[in-house]
Amino acid sequence: MKYLATYLLLALAGNESPSAADIKAVLSSVGIDADSERLDKVIAELQGKNLQELIAEGSTKLASVPSGGAGAAAPAAGGAAAGGDAPAAEEKEEEKEESDDDMGFGLFD
């Protein structure tokens, strides 16, 4: 990922076709040693391709991937409802009371 990010940074800076030496120079400036084998693979995969088209294609692929956040929240909410609504309501009221407590200090004391 760091090689791809560096490649993209160099491309955004105006270097349309960054070389392995360019990427190594950027990475070494921040104290990262580059793995030549992986770096060569990234450069070979990106050589001669339009980065804007690759980003657009990747965005459409990511849009079709379901996110894990929404799926995980639904079972948790369903489990709470099955247990009963009364305890959940009491917990909410207690949290509200605690948030109103000023711990003995008033705004104008």
Automatic annotation (TrEMBL):
Keywords: Phosphoprotein, Ribonucleoprotein, Ribosomal protein. This is Ribosomal protein 60S. One of its GO terms (biological process) is cytoplasmic translational elongation. P1 and P2 exist as dimers at the large ribosomal subunit. InterPro entries: P1/P2_N_sf, Ribosomal_P1/P2, Ribosomal_P1/P2_euk, Ribosomal_P2. The lineage of its organism: Eukaryota, Fungi, Dikarya, Ascomycota, Pezizomycotina. One of its GO terms (molecular function) is structural constituent of ribosome. It comes from Penicillium atrosanguineum. Residues 72-87 have a biased composition (Low complexity). One of its GO terms (cellular component) is cytosolic large ribosomal subunit. Pfam families: Ribosomal_60s. The keyword Phosphoprotein applies. Belongs to the eukaryotic ribosomal protein P1/P2 family. The keyword Ribosomal protein applies. Residues 63-109 are annotated as: Disordered. Residues 91-103 have a biased composition (Acidic residues).
